Amino acid sequence: MALAKLTEEQIKQELTSLQGWSVLNGKLHKDFVFTDFIEAFGFMTKAAIHIEKMNHHPEWFNVYNKIKVELVTHDAGGITQNDINLAKTLNSLAR
User: How far is residue 52 from each of residues 12, 13, 14, measured CA to CA in Å?
Assistant: First the structure.
């Protein structure tokens, strides 16, 4: 079952509870900053386990202590509830 693309209003509502996330170029976007590379890599390692269980893989880019994450559901042509759920998971892992 394919997930439906969320409306702009639904996304705006979800963003109120997603600290640090915004929409950039049609994707959910957040820059995570950690104290060093080991902490950033540890976050990515923990996140990978959850990501694989969800079978919903982010676009992410790591340079030293920074990780840029972008979420979009390509099959739906936009942001879906899967992206919102993964953003919430990533926020909780980064605490």
Answer: 27, 27, 23
Assessment of whether the complete model's pTM goes beyond 0.70: yes
DSSP 8-state assignment for residue 22: E
* Domain residue ranges of the chain, discontinuous segments joined by +: 24-94
Exposure string for 60-83, b = 16+ CB within 10 A, e = fewer: bebeeeebebbbbbeebebbbebb
What is the residue-level pLDDT of the chain in tens, covering all 95 positions? Answer: 568 999 999 999 999 999 999 999 999 999 999 999 999 999 999 999 999 999 999 999 999 999 999 999 998 999 999 999 999 999 999 98
Give the CATH architecture of domain 24-94.
2-Layer Sandwich (3.30)
